[in-house]
Amino acid sequence: MQPPPSVATYAEAMSVQAAIAVAVLLFMGLPALIIGLAALGPIGWIVAATVLPFATLGVLLWLGWFRRRPDDGPGPWQSTGRDR
Question: Taken in order 24, 25, 28, 30, is the CA torsion positive or negative?
Fold first, then answer.
């Protein structure tokens, strides 16, 4: 089993066509998922109102934290010297 690719190879492996396809899928699929869940009734509304926002937050945190690169800038634990 090979180790996961580094961020640089991941970025190089993602083609423009694949990025556009993912963006269109999310742009069209997420609203369709919300509408489909709302059509299920109160249980679907609860899932659409609670689970989807937490899933979105989880994905954003994953992308921002676990996919970071060394040149992204200082983290919250590193002082930039501007706070003095």
Answer: negative
pTM of the model: 0.50
Per the domain annotation, does 19 fall within a domain?
Answer: yes
Residue 43: phi and psi, rounded to 5, are -65, -40
Let me know: does 35 contact 25? Beta carbons within 8 Å. no
Token pair listed for 32:
């369709």
Domain-located, residue 75: no
**Which residues have C-beta within 8 Å of that of residue 30, sequence separation ≥ 6?**
52
pLDDT tens readout for residues 26-41: 889 888 988 999 999 9
Where do the H-state alpha helices sit in 1-84? 7-13, 16-39, 42-46, 52-61
79: in domain? no
